[in-house]
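can u do me a favor
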């Protein structure tokens, strides 16, 4: 059973008159009659009751008319959806991100994405830097928000965020109330550190901050998750240095002190694989690049 015969049948079922149906289809009446006979033979049922003056649908014909009409409606919808996918306005995009980005720019950018492309869905996964890089190269992710810079040249990067660092310690810590609290004041205290595989460049920047303050931190705990770091700090297990934007995302019993005078910065880049760029991902990269320009103007 092919779509051509079904289309002929639907026109005939609408007209219930072979001559009028043939005229609508721009064919002669005998070819139309042959197509309908072939369809009935393929299905093994009569679809029409024919007399010299009338054409009526059998029960099987009425059922086929309803289902075939629904089928052609689905085909029409499918054709439209395929065009939208080709234009990059319909689909699903897999996005990876480092945890802190969810507490800075990512939620508002996803809101803008929904406004610009309401028919593009997202699958979000929190992953450390290297896991995102590997997934982007393998095609398991479409986009990634990573701590930059990232080694390698097979992926394209768009810088999207630059932050200062802030030291963080529990609000109940004896030094938390000190008005002019500085890094050097924490020199002998246990330090809670990001894992190097999470973001090597950021870890290097944090240790450079400590060196500039005249000490090497006494590392007590190490983790790749920002939430874990803050919970450990809040529990009094040590202090840490984190990107300053984190302070707005976690309402914990902590004190943050921005290290604005230091030249060290935490940077985030939008990462994607140019070799695996779908139309939807291309549109999103363009949108996020424009949003990044707006972020820089606003600072």
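np, heres the sequence
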């Amino acid at each position: 059973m092919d779509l051509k015969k079904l289309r002929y049948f639907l026109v005939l079922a609408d007209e219930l008159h072979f001559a009028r149906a043939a005229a609508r289809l721009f064919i002669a009446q005998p070819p139309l009659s042959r197509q309908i006979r072939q369809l009935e033979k393929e299905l093994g049922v009569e679809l029409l009751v024919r007399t010299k003056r009338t054409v009526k649908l059998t029960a099987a014909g009425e059922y086929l008319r309803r289902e075939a009409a629904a089928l052609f409606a689905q085909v029409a919808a499918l054709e439209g959806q395929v065009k939208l996918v080709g234009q990059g306005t319909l689909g699903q995009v897999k996005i990876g991100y480092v945890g802190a980005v969810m507490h800075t720019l990512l939620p508002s950018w996803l809101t803008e994405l929904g406004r610009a492309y309401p028919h593009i869905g997202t699958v979000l996964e929190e992953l450390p830097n290297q896991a995102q890089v590997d997934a982007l190269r393998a095609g398991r992710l479409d986009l990634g928000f990573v701590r930059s810079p990232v080694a390698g040249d097979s992926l394209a990067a768009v810088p999207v965020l630059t932050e200062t660092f802030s030291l963080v310690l529990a609000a109940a810590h004896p030094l938390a109330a000190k008005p002019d609290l500085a890094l050097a004041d924490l020199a002998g205290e246990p330090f809670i550190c990001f894992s190097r595989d999470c973001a090597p460049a950021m870890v290097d920047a944090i240790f450079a901050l400590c060196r500039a303050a005249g000490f090497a931190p006494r590392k007590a705990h190490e983790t790749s998750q920002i939430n874990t770091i803050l919970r450990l700090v809040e529990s009094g297990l040590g202090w840490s240095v984190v990107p300053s934007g984190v302070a707005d995302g976690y309402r914990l019993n902590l004190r943050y002190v921005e290290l604005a005078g230091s030249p060290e910065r935490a940077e985030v880049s939008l990462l994607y694989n140019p070799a695996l760029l779908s139309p939807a991902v291309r549109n999103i990269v363009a949108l996020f690049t424009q949003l990044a320009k707006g972020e820089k103007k606003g600072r």
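The chain has nine helices and twelve strands. hope that helps!!
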